[in-house]
């Protein structure tokens, strides 16, 4: 897959490889897709303030996430029904993450089984949980995840209801995880008390996925949550939310180092990663880009995608005057006007037209 020279080429091949139904599932958002578009808009609304006359002969693009060193601060976000995008499903993502040197977050509603995915590759892995049963069910699935070797748990809390995704509705298509799901109504009954129960039962590294407000970030920190995963589900749940990077910019100074911050939502380039870390995130997670890379070239395609992001990061850090991520501060970026319309693919300018 070394023939891919940039991720725009990967997206182009992915579009040719996927059916319309699956492309729309992976690429689309909820209702008017305003949240999805704001994710990209918020990233594009920050400009760099570079420094010069510094020794940039050595650049270290690595990061530390959940106490683990990663080759770049880019994680693989959980994707339900990943097997509909690429036959290897979550196992292929886990293998690619292990080969490259980063961490996958594995969805509890993807295939193959959580045990098979964990066994597919070495290295730290995060298990993402949707609540689909009672407390006995929760105990059982967390026990399985522990036994399989997952090092961290991510509890998703922004999905009380399944988003109204009009692309899917017009296609009369539902992903396999939705067709097969049972206990979906239990996701709407998650409370802070149940979150406490799940965290205490897990007794390990724990993150809350789907934090979208300062108020909830503070409540989580006060209850002892040490990792906040800022996310609006890629714009696939509640429409008309803030862009994810703007949400990060609000939460980071209020949390003030009391919790590690991870963010996803529209991150597609190395420069996007740098902006998020400058605002206080330890890492970003990629969802759509992960899926496109798998569709374009499977495990090898995803490894190549991460290599291309790494190249972009090294190049941008060097031009910004920064040797490593620990040197980044908000002083290196500034809010400005956005050039041109934004949508889920607008950063890939040389595609010339929006892929639909």
Automatic annotation (TrEMBL):
Belongs to the FMN-dependent alpha-hydroxy acid dehydrogenase family. PROSITE patterns: FMN_HYDROXY_ACID_DH_1, FMN_HYDROXY_ACID_DH_2. PANTHER family: 2-HYDROXYACID OXIDASE 1, S -2-HYDROXY-ACID OXIDASE-RELATED. Residues 1-338 form the FMN hydroxy acid dehydrogenase domain. Keywords: Flavoprotein, FMN, Oxidoreductase. One of its GO terms (molecular function) is FMN binding. GO terms for cellular component: plasma membrane. Transmembrane segments: none annotated. CDD domains: alpha_hydroxyacid_oxid_FMN. The lineage of its organism: Bacteria, Pseudomonadati, Pseudomonadota, Alphaproteobacteria, Hyphomicrobiales. The active site is at residue 233. Glyoxylate binds at residues 25, 165, 233. FMN binds at residues 78-80, 107, 128, 130, 156, 209, 231, 236, 287-288. Pfam families: FMN_dh (PF01070). GO terms for biological process: aerobic respiration. This is Alpha-hydroxy-acid oxidizing protein. Its cofactor is FMN. It comes from the Bacteria. The keyword Flavoprotein applies.
């Amino acid at each position: 897959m070394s023939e891919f020279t940039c991720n725009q080429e990967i997206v182009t091949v992915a579009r040719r490889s996927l059916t319309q139904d699956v492309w729309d599932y992976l690429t689309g958002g909820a209702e008017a897709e305003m949240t999805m578009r704001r994710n990209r808009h918020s990233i594009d609304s920050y400009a760099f303030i570079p420094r010069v006359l510094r020794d940039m002969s050595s650049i270290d693009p690595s990061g530390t996430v959940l106490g683990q060193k990663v080759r770049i601060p880019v994680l693989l976000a959980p994707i339900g029904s990943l097997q509909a995008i690429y036959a290897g499903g979550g196992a292929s993502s886990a293998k690619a993450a292990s080969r490259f040197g980063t961490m996958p977050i594995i969805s509890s509603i993807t295939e193959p089984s959580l045990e098979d995915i964990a066994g597919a590759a070495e290295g730290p892995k995060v298990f993402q949980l949707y609540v689909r049963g009672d407390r006995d069910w929760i105990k059982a699935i967390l026990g399985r995840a522990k036994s399989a070797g997952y090092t961290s748990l991510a509890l998703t809390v922004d999905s009380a209801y399944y988003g109204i995704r009009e692309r899917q509705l017009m296609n009369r298509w539902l992903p396999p995880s939705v067709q097969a799901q049972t206990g979906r109504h239990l996701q709407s009954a998650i409370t802070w008390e149940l979150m406490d129960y799940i965290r205490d039962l897990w007794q390990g590294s724990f993150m809350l996925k789907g934090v979208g407000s300062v108020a909830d970030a503070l409540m989580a920190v006060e209850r002892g949550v040490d990792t906040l995963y800022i996310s609006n589900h890629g714009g696939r749940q509640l429409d008309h939310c803030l862009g994810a990077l703007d949400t990060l910019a609000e939460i980071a100074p209020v949390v003030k180092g009391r919790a590690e911050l991870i963010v996803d939502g529209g991150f597609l380039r190395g420069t996007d990663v740098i902006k998020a870390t400058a605002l206080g995130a330890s890492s970003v997670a990629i969802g759509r880009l992960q899926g496109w890379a798998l569709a374009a070239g499977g495990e090898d395609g995803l490894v190549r995608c991460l290599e291309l992001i790494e190249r972009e990061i090294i190049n941008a850090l060097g031009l910004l005057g920064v040797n490593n991520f620990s040197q980044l501060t908000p002083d290196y970026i500034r809010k400005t006007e956005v050039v041109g319309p934004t949508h889920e693919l607008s950063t890939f300018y040389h595609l010339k037209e929006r892929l639909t």
